[in-house]
Structures are given as structure tokens and as C-alpha cells.
């Protein structure tokens, strides 16, 4: 819409063609608060200017223009926060409506549920988990229903992006191609009423990875692919030495007919690959070692080069590459956010005030960016952004938008109030003040650490004296009651001395409260002879984790572990997705020695257990040889590729841990230096 009010011609989107119009604010709009000509790439509709004397019409037009600018600025800021590319920015009213529909939590939840439904269908499809088996008509119909929902999701994204932008979006096009293949296969299964070998089911995990809630998983996948070039270089070096040693081993040991490990070049390669994981050592060496003791030099040199040098070099290279990718990713995200902030800033300044954003414009922005934020929080956020203490927020201050908008504001009932009991009568105040001093004292803390240590030693002695059989005691042990009473008194003292809010604001206090609560439930299970709930009693040793607070390095380890949980969850999702792919490809395994027959690919649950055992690489070659005996020698290639890819993922996980721990230690040292 183009509106002429003096010399101001705002460039904004109008929603008249879609029939939706944002209500204008009630307050009057000053002439100096007219929007700037810095709209986005929305379509412009030229509308004749209202009459000069029609002041109210001019006001309504200007308010509507500002509402459009507020909404577009909020979209830019959301794109910066979500790392969405700006070429997908909505370009017209229809695209805006689709964008708003796609970017809401109900749509995200629909995406997630649909993707999980497609994955869970593998529990019901052949080869299915026996108790979850469904008829072909039922699971094929469910699959078609889920795929129709995916079609609806993609059609809304196409309406938002536009056709040409849609086909240029690589991830969306991959998802579309997988969707077409899945559709054809589901229809074929439904028509034939019989299941065939469906390798493409392995691609269903793409629907989950593409969900909004799996953004961290996509970033991890991207980092893994970016780390591959140096990894492949070192891997080729590793395989090069492996081939050389395989040829040497074949010529040195094939003459020994009692040695089955090097009788052919294929066996030499396979067994040296297994030797890299140490799963068949020293078995692979013993036939040749029994014939010639000097043959051990071959295996010592091989392990020294491959296992102790190249494998550690591989970790070092991946860690260095990962650190570099992390820095470049952080820089890219920062620059992307700053670009989004600049786009939003140009939409929020007026021609009369080009040097900054007024509070009125900032408040209008926040109504779209964070609708649930109250007026007081908007004002406090504006004041926190405004470092120059003027009436306008400059671009330099606005660059801190994402950091400041994430702050949590807490109202204080009384400015000088330090404790929750300050307003109580003097006698009660002195009592609670004494309890507060007691629970904060080092003597009280170390006394509780001593109690926890004694409790742990007592549990260890009791466990050592128990024999196999039924561990459920007939009577409640007196030690259980004593220690639980001490923990209960501690809980009561801390709650009254610190106050419930301050007490529950600490993670360690929440942990203590949870363990004490479980201990009390365990006491009830013992007192009322509820044997099925005896597992609660077993949780008592968790109190020993409190001893980690004593040493600073232990605290750093635990803090690093808690910080890594979100990233480890996304990385483990990548590993699970890869196991999903291998489950679909894997064949049935039959190994009759010991309990190895349980390691099979009969259904998805058995497959995950089997593939996790392969990840641990302990005696994994037994599973591999069991599959080989039932299929062909080419199945070994499946297990070797699985091991190599798993090694990549595990190396990335180790790099995660190293990076996080090094950052944590450096951050702690820097803070100590600044405080000193």
C-alpha cells in the first residue's frame, strides 16, 4: 500500500487481498512516527492517497502501515533466530498467510507426530515385532494417511516459498523425492496385499530429521558431512597400511595350514580389519606365534601404526576440523542474526527519526515477536537494550536484541528484602535467621557430606554381606530409618532457612529433594511389603552423587555433562537414524553358539540391540561371521561400513566432549583471573 502523508511513502505489505486486516492500536499516531520506506520484498499495491482533509483516514492508513512493518520485522527476527534463509522470506499476502500457518507449534507438532508414526510403523510391518504385528491393509492405510499429511505440509511450504524457491531448497526437494517413492511403494503394497523387500523404508528417518524440533540433529549431520574430507584422507591412509599388511600377512602366514586367518587375501583383509578393533586379539596372532615366536613383530608393528598412531591421529584431525567448523558456524550464525536485525531495524525507524527505534515502535514489534510478553517486560527489555540512555534505540544497541530479549525478569516485592522471613515478628525472625546461617555454614555442609559417605559405606557393607536370592527384607532396617530421618531434617532446615523458592532454584537441592522423596517412598514399600516397588529402595546410593560437590574438578565434569545433554541427544539421534537405516538393510542372523542366536535382525527392536553391540565392537566379528555363514561373503562389507560410519559418529561425539570440557575449563580459569 502506498500512502502519501506529506513526503512519507511507506513500502509495506497490505493484506486486503486475503481479507485479513490487523486491528490498529487505539493510541493516536504522531506525524513524526510515520514508517520508513524500508519494507521487505512484499508486493506493493498502489492505492490512491486519501483526501488531505480526511485526517482520520490518514491515521488509519499510517497505523495499518506500522502494523505491517511490525509483523515483517518480527518475521525477519524469527528468521535470524531460526537460521532460516532470507530468500524464503514471504513475498506476498498468500505467502505470509502460509508462513504464519507453517511457523506455529501446532504445525511443528503435526510434523513430529507424522514422522514418528512413519517410523513406528516398522514395529508393525514385516518383519514385525510379534505382539505388534498388524495386517497389511491396516499398516498400509496408516502409512498412506501419514504420507498425505506430509503432502499437505509440503504444499503449505510451497505456498509460502513459491515454486522456484521451493525447488531450489535442497532438503525440501530430497524430502519430496522420498515422499514420492514412499507413496508408490505404499500403493503397491496396498494393491498387492503383500509386503515386499522395501529398502527405501530406511529413508523414513528423513521426515523426522526435517522437523523443526530436530534442528540440532540437522546441524550435527551437517557438521559430520563437513568433517568428512579430512577424515576420509586419514581413513584412506589407514586402509592403505591395512592392505599392505594384509598382503604381507598372506605371504608370511598362508603356508601355515593351521592358521585360518591368513589362508586367503580376503581373510587377511577381514581379520586385520577386525584386529583394528582388538576384538580378535590375540587369537589372530596365536597360530603363527606358536609356529614362529618372531611373528609377533608383525602384529606389534601393525597395531602400533594402525591402532595407536593413525586412530589417534584420526581423532586429532576430526577434533581440529570440528573446532574450526564450530567457530565458522558461530560466526555465520552471528552474521545471519545481525543481518536479520538490520532488516528489522530499517522497518522500525521513521523518516523523522532515522537514528533509532522509539519505544512505541519497539512495543509494536514485540506484540508480534513475543505476544505473551507483558507490558512491563517490554519496557524493561527496551531499557536494557537502550545503553545510550536516550529515547531511541540505536542500531548498535539493537544488535544485542537476541541476548536481551531472552532475559527473565523477576519482580521483587520489597527492594531491601533479603530473606523471605524479614517481615515476621522478631522472635520468629531470629529463629529463621539462625537456621539460615546454619544451613549456609561450611560445618553443616561437611556434616551432611560425612553422613552421605557413612551411608554409602553402610550400604556397601550390607550389599557385600547379602547372598544370592531374594534381597527383599522382611523388616525395615533401622539404618534406613536413621539416615532417612537425617535427610528429612536437612530438607526441612534448608526449606525453612532458605525459603521454598530459593531452595528449589538450585539444581543440587532439587536432586537432594528427589532422592529423599524416593527414599521415603522406598520406606513405604518396605513397611507395607510392596515387593514390586523394591526398585525404589535400590535408588538410595544416588545420594553418593552429592559428594561430587566437594571437588571442583568433579563439579566441572558434571557441569560439562549436563551442558552436553542437549547436544548429545541430537548426536545420538543421528546414530539412531543410522542404525535405523542398517536395520532396514540388514538380513536375518543365525548364530547357534552361546547366546549369539539372540543377535539378529528379525525385527527393529532386535536390530537396534544387535547394532548397538556392533557399536561397542566387543566380539562383533562373531555376529558378522554368523551373518556371512547364512548369506554371502559380501555381507561383511555391510558390517565394515557400519563400523566405519559409527567410528565417524563416535569420533564426533568425543570431539563434542573435548570441545565442551576445554571450553568449560578455559571459561572457569578466565573468570577466576578476572575476579582475582
Automatic annotation (TrEMBL):
InterPro entries in the cross-refs: Ion_trans_dom (IPR005821), TPC1_animal (IPR028801), Volt_channel_dom_sf (IPR027359)
Gene Ontology CC annotations of this record: endosome membrane; lysosomal membrane
Membrane-spanning intervals of the chain: 106-124, 131-152, 172-191, 228-253, 297-319, 446-466, 478-496, 508-526, 638-663
Domain of life per record: Eukaryota
Biased composition (Acidic residues): 1-10
Gene3D superfamilies: 1.10.287.70, Voltage-gated potassium channels. Chain C
Region (Disordered): 1-58
Membrane topology: Multi-pass membrane protein
Subcellular location(s) of the protein: Membrane
Keywords, ordered alphabetically: Membrane, Transmembrane, Transmembrane helix
Compositional bias of kind Polar residues: 46-58
One annotated GO molecular function: monoatomic ion channel activity
Keyword Transmembrane included in the entry's annotation: yes
Domain Ion transport: 106-329, 442-662
Entry protein name: SWI/SNF-related matrix-associated actin-dependent regulator of chromatin subfamily A-like protein 1
Species whose genome carries this gene: Platysternon megacephalum
Amino acid at each position: 500500500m502506498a500512502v502519501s502523508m506529506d513526503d512519507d511513502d511507506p513500502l509495506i505489505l497490505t493484506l486486503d487481498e486475503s481479507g485479513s486486516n490487523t486491528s490498529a492500536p487505539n493510541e493516536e499516531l504522531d506525524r513524526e512516527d510515520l514508517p520508513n520506506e524500508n519494507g521487505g520484498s512484499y508486493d506493493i499495491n498502489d492505492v490512491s492517497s486519501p483526501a488531505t482533509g480526511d485526517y482520520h483516514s490518514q491515521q488509519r492508513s499510517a497505523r495499518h502501515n506500522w502494523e505491517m512493518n511490525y509483523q515483517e520485522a518480527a518475521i525477519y527476527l524469527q528468521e535470524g533466530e531460526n537460521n532460516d534463509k532470507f530468500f524464503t522470506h514471504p513475498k506476498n499476502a498468500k505467502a505470509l498467510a502460509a508462513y504464519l500457518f507453517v511457523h506455529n507449534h501446532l504445525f511443528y507438532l503435526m510434523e513430529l507426530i507424522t514422522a514418528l508414526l512413519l517410523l513406528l510403523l516398522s514395529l508393525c510391518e514385516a518383519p514385525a515385532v510379534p505382539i505388534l504385528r498388524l495386517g497389511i491393509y491396516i499398516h498400509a492405510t496408516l502409512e498412506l494417511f501419514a504420507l498425505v499429511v506430509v503432502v499437505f505440509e509440503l504444499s503449505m511450504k510451497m505456498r509460502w516459498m513459491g515454486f522456484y524457491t521451493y525447488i531450489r531448497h535442497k532438503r525440501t526437494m530430497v524430502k519430496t523425492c522420498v515422499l514420492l517413492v514412499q507413496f508408490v511403494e505404499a500403493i503397491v503394497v496396498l494393491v498387492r496385499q503383500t509386503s515386499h523387500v522395501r529398502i527405501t523404508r530406511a529413508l523414513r528417518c528423513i521426515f523426522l530429521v526435517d522437523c523443526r524440533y530436530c534442528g540440532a540433529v540437522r546441524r550435527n549431520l551437517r557438521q559430520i558431512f563437513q568433517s568428512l574430507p579430512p577424515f576420509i584422507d586419514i581413513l584412506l591412509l589407514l586402509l592403505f597400511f591395512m592392505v599392505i599388511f594384509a598382503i604381507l600377512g598372506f605371504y608370511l602366514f598362508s603356508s601355515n595350514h593351521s592358521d585360518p586367518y591368513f589362508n586367503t587375501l580376503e581373510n587377511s583383509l577381514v581379520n586385520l580389519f577386525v584386529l583394528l578393533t582388538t576384538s580378535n586379539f590375540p587369537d589372530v596372532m596365536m597360530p603363527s606365534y606358536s609356529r614362529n615366536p618372531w611373528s609377533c613383530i608383525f602384529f606389534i608393528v601393525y597395531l602400533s601404526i594402525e591402532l595407536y598412531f593413525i586412530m589417534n591421529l584420526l581423532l586429532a584431525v576430526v577434533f581440529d576440523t570440528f573446532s574450526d567448523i564450530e567457530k565458522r558456524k558461530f560466526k555465520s550464525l552471528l552474521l545471519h542474526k545481525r543481518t536479520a536485525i538490520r532488516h528489522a531495524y530499517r522497518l522500525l525507524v521513521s523518516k523523522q527519526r532515522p537514528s533509532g527505534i522509539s519505544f512505541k515502535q519497539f512495543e509494536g514489534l514485540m506484540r508480534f515477536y513475543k505476544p505473551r510478553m507483558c507490558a512491563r517486560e517490554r519496557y524493561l527489555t527496551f531499557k536494557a537494550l537502550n545503553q545510550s540512555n536516550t529515547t531511541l534505540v540505536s542500531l548498535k544497541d539493537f544488535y544485542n536484541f537476541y541476548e536481551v530479549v531472552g532475559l527473565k525478569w523477576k519482580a521483587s516485592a520489597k527492594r531491601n528484602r533479603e530473606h523471605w522471613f524479614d517481615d515476621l515478628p522478631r522472635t520468629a525472625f531470629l529463629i529463621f535467621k539462625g537456621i539460615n546461617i546454619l544451613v549456609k555454614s561450611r560445618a553443616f555442609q561437611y556434616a551432611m557430606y560425612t553422613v552421605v559417605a557413612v551411608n554409602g559405606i553402610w550400604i556397601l557393607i550390607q550389599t557385600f554381606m547379602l547372598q544370592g536370592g531374594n534381597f527383599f527384607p522382611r523388616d525395615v532396617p533401622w539404618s534406613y530409618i536413621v539416615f532417612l530421618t537425617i535427610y528429612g531434617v536437612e530438607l526441612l532446615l534448608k526449606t525453612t532457612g532458605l525459603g521454598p523458592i530459593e531452595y528449589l532454584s538450585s539444581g543440587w537441592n532439587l536432586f537432594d529433594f528427589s532422592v529423599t522423596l524416593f527414599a521415603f517412598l522406598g520406606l513405604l514399600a518396605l513397611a507395607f511389603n510392596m515387593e514390586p516397588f523394591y526398585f525404589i529402595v535400590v535408588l538410595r546410593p544416588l545420594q553418593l552423587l552429592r559428594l561430587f560437590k566437594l571437588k571442583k574438578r568433579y563439579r566441572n565434569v558434571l557441569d560439562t555433562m549436563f551442558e552436553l545433554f542437549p547436544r548429545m541427544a541430537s548426536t545420538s539421534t543421528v546414530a539412531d537414524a543410522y542404525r535405523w537405516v542398517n536395520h532396514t538393510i540388514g538380513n536375518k542372523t543365525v548364530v547357534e553358539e552361546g547366546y549369539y542366536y539372540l543377535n539378529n535382525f528379525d525385527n527393529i527392536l532386535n536390530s537396534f540391540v544387535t547394532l548397538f553391540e556392533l557399536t561397542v565392537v566387543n566380539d562383533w566379528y562373531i555376529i558378522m561371521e554368523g551373518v556371512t555363514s547364512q548369506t554371502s561373503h559380501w555381507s561383511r562389507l555391510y558390517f565394515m561400513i557400519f563400523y566405519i560410519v559409527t567410528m565417524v559418529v563416535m569420533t564426533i561425539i568425543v570431539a563434542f566432549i573435548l570441545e565442551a570440557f576445554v571450553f568449560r575449563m578455559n571459561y572457569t580459569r578466565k573468570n577466576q583471573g578476572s575476579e582475582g
